[in-house]
Amino acid sequence: MDYKKEIKRQFKESKSVAGVYQIKNIQNQKVFLGSTLNLKTLNGKTFQLEMGSYPNKALQKEWTEFGKEAFVVEVLEELKQKEDDYTAPADALKKLEEKWLDKLQPYGDRGYN
C-alpha cells in the first residue's frame, strides 16, 4: 500500500478531540484562552502567530515583541462527553470554555481575551 495513502487514511479515521487551550506568555503571565473542536489545529494557531496573522491583535503584538520562546501552548482540558449525552459538541465546548474563563479571568492586565 502507498505510504501517503495510508497516512491519509489513518488521519481521516482518527477521531478529533475538542478542548480548551491557553497560550501563555511566560514572561508576564498573560494568557489567551480559547477552544477548538479539534485540538490537532493548535499547530495552526502558532503558525498564524509566527506569520503575524493571528486575529487577536494584543496577543499578536506581544508574540512579535517577545518572540515565540516567551510563550507556551497548553491544553487545559479535553471535552469528554458521555455516550448518553446528546448535547451538541459545540455547545458543550462553549460551556467548558466559559468554566475556564471564569476560573482564569484572562482579561485586562491578566490576559488577551
DSSP strand content = 15-25%
CATH level 1 class label:
Alpha Beta
What is the CATH superfamily classification? GIY-YIG endonuclease
Helix content: 40-55%
Largest sheet: 3 strands, antiparallel
What form results from the Cα inertia axes?
Answer: flat
First-to-last CA distance: 47 Å
Strand element count:
3
Which fold name corresponds to the CATH topology? GIY-YIG endonuclease
Show unreliable segments.
none
How many domains? The number is 1
Instruction: Report the radius of gyration as a whole number of Å.
Output: 16 Å
Quick check: average pLDDT?
A: 91
Q: Which CATH-level-2 architecture?
A: 3-Layer(aba) Sandwich
User: What structural class results from the helix and strand content?
Assistant: alpha+beta
Adjacency order of strands in the biggest sheet = 2-1-3
List the secondary-structure elements in sequence, H or E: HEEHHEH
Helical run tally: 4
